[in-house]
Amino acid sequence: MEYGEEYQGIIYNEQPLEESFPPTRLLHRDGQRDEIVRCLKPALKGRKINNLYLYGAPGTGKTALIKFILENEFPGMFAYVNCFKYSETKAVLREILWQFGVNLPESADVIKEFENFVKNKNIIVCLDEVDQLEDPDKLLYILADSVGLILISNQSYVNLYRLNQRTRDRLGLTEVEFPEYKPDELFDIGKDRVQFSFVPGTLPDQLIRIAAMMSLGDARVLLRTLRNAGRLAEERGKKKVTIDEIKEGAKEARKLRKSRALAKLNEHQKIIYNILDEKREMFSGDLYREYKARVSNPVGPRGFRKYMNKIVALGLAVAKGGKGRYRKYEITI
Fold first, then answer.
1. Which parts of the chain register pLDDT below 70?
2. Start-end of H helices in 45-164
3. Domain spanning 182-260 has what CATH number?
4. Cα 136 from chain centroid?
5. For residue 17, which of 26, 102, 121, 125 sits 20 to 30 Å off, Cα-Cα?
C-alpha cells in the first residue's frame, strides 16, 4: 500500500515492522553473513556444507539472517524447521519431507522414508531453537551424515555438550556468535524500517533512538515498540508519535517478549523464575535453597545450573560475577 496526500494516518505499511518480514538488507551482521556464506557455498558445487551452530540472545538477527541467505542464495535446496513447534524426531523429519513436496501417510516408516529421500541429494536443513528437541541425539545422529545442518539456539555451543560424543563428532559444527545489538545499531535498524512503514515526518529520529535504547539489545522488541507506538498515536488522533507512545509501546513489547520466553520454560524453571522475580535479584545459593523448599522433587545443583543457563539465555535474567552459590542473578524483564 502506498501513501498519498489523502492518507491521514501515521503507519502506511506495517509489514516492515513485523519480525517475520523478509528484509531487503541486514544491517550490522556483515561478519556473520560472510562466515555463514563461506560455510554454505560448497552446496552450490554439489558438496556437503560445513555444518553451522548459530547462537545469541533473542532478537539478535539469527533467524532473519539465515532465512535471508537461504532464500536468496540457496532456493529450493533447504528446509527450515522451528523445533519449538516440531520437537519430536519423526515430526521434524515429516516436516522436512513435506517442505520438499513429500507428504507421508500416518502409517509410513518416517525414518526409512527420509533416509531414502535424501540419498544422493544435496540439501540443507536448518533447525531453529534446536535446544527444544525432545531427543536431540537421535535426530541429529540421523541428520548429520545425510544433510547439511544449521542449528540455531539462544545458548552457546556448550549447550550441545549434553549430546553423546558420537553425535558431536559427526556434527563438526562451526560456531557463529550473534552478540546483542548496541543502541546505535538498533537505531540504524529502526530508521531503516521506519522509512518503509511510517509517513515521513511522523516519527522523529530522536524517538527512534530512545526506542532503541529501551529495547534491551533486541531488534524484535524495537520493531514491536515502533509499531505499537504508531498504532497508539493513530488511535489518539495524533499527527505524530510522541514520547508517551514510545514508552507505552516499549512496555507492551517487553511484556510480549517476556510471555514468549516464559512459554519455553518447564514448570521447575518457571518456579525458579517466579522466585527471582519476587526478589528481583538473588545469590545462586539462596535461589537454589528457595527453589528446593517449594518443590517436592528438585533437580540437583548441576541441573539447577542448566536451568539458570536457559533462563539467562532467554533474556529473562542476567548473571553477575562470582562463582557457584556466590553468583548473583538479576531479573531483566
1. 1-8, 157-161, 324
2. 62-73, 89-99, 110-118, 136-144
3. 1.10.8.60
4. 18
5. 125
Whether 330 contacts 280, CB under 8 Å: yes
Q: Which residues pair with 55 in a beta bridge?
A: 153, 177
Per-residue pLDDT at 3: 53
Residues whose CB is less than 8 angstroms from the CB of residue 283 and which lie 6 or more positions away in sequence, other chains included: 322, 325, 326, 327, 328, 329
Q: Which CATH class is domain 30-178?
A: alpha beta
Helix axes 110-118, 136-144, angle to 10 degrees: 30
Distance (Å, rounded) from C-alpha 331 to C-alpha 298?
22
Contacts for 65 with CB less than 8 Å, ≥ 6 apart: 26, 29, 32, 33, 36, 178
H or E element in which residue 329 lies: strand 328-331
Q: For residue 190, which of 27, 5, 77 has the smallest C-alpha distance?
A: 27
What is the predicted pLDDT for the residue at 1?
A: 46
CATH 3.40.50.300 positions along the chain are 30-178
Which three cell numbers, joined as nine digits, stand for 205? 529520529
Stated as kind and residue range, the H or E segment containing 231 is: helix 219-235
Residues of CATH 1.10.8.60 domain(s) within the chain? Answer: 182-260
Residues 6 or more apart in contact with residue 3 via CB below 8 angstroms:
9, 12, 13, 199
Q: Give the start-end residues of each E strand in 216-311.
A: 281-283
Cell 539465555 belongs to: 313
Cell readout for 212 is 532503541
- Predicted pLDDT at 276: 96
For the domain with range 265-331, which CATH number is right: 1.10.10.10, 3.50.50.60, 1.10.1040.50, 3.40.50.2020? 1.10.10.10
Predicted TM-score of the model (pTM): 0.84
